[in-house]
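new request in #modeling-help
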Amino acid sequence: MTRQEPRQGSDALRGGWLIKRREFVYPGSFDPLTKGHVNVVSRAAQLCDILHVVILTNPSKKPAFTVEQRMEMAKLCLSKWDNIRVDSYQGLLVDYMREKSIHVVVRGLRSESDFRFETEMAATNALMYPEYETILLPSKTDYSFTSSSMVREVASYGGDISKMVPPEILPMVEERFKQSEQ
Ligand code: PNS
């Protein structure tokens, strides 16, 4: 507890004391959101007061869904948790975090190859933003091999993606790939 100015809509004043809320960012391309992402969100949301699910651009991937569609899908799937905020940002993750005064990022970890990428990302971001900290949550075994790129590939061949995609957005994802088949 510290005596400070509260940030708008973020910290809480109780009896003159500022109670700092623990806020984490869960960043990703979420193109589209998968059941694996939802599982990470459900666990990360219990570790903090507010979890910001932030849709960013991964320059090495060409998105299948617009940022607006990805925001809509995230909101549809994540509205049952009242401590989750869905947001998007064009730019560096660390700039978003600096703007919001948030230091902690949560990422899901499926495999050894994820570990390599995640440690590179953590180290690079920490060079730009020394307060940057990463929490890696190992994925539930059911979702160890679920990824947005697998969803896109299976869906583009008209395959069954129902075990990988949350039911709330299944029709939207199927529809998107039906269009590209035509
Ligand atoms: O879901 P993804 O594609 O693994 O997420 C990667 C993402 C979007 C979090 C990462 O590419 C990112 O942070 N993009 C924003 C630009 C940035 O900050 N790049 C430098 C750190 S890797």
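bot summary: The two ends are 58 Å apart (CA to CA).
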